[in-house]
Design the sequence.
């Protein structure tokens, strides 16, 4: 079902396009106190790059709309990773363990 009026992020995408810009990528660069921090890397009409601080949820939603890649710093991914041996032990025992980050 198509909404009668555009959602805020759909409007923002159209505004960026109309002004000659585009979203290049999203970078999730920090995790602090359980909160992710992200930046948008945008290209302006004059082929100038600009980084904008944004809420991570908005950055991801815009990346999806622009079909832009989403990157996270390796240290963030490593801090949140669940070791593979935990998956193997769960599969062998048949138990399910809930992990929280």
Sequence:
């Amino acid at each position: 079902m198509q909404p009668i009026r555009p959602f805020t992020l759909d409007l923002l995408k159209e505004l960026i396009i109309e002004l000659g810009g585009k979203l290049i990528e999203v970078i999730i660069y920090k995790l602090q106190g359980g909160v992710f921090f992200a930046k948008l890397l945008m290209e302006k009409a004059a082929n100038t790059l600009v980084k904008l601080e944004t809420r991570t949820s908005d950055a991801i939603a815009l990346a999806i709309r622009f079909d832009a890649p989403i990157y996270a710093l390796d240290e963030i991914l490593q801090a949140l990773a669940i070791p593979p041996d935990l998956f193997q032990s769960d599969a062998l025992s048949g138990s399910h363990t809930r992990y929280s980050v």
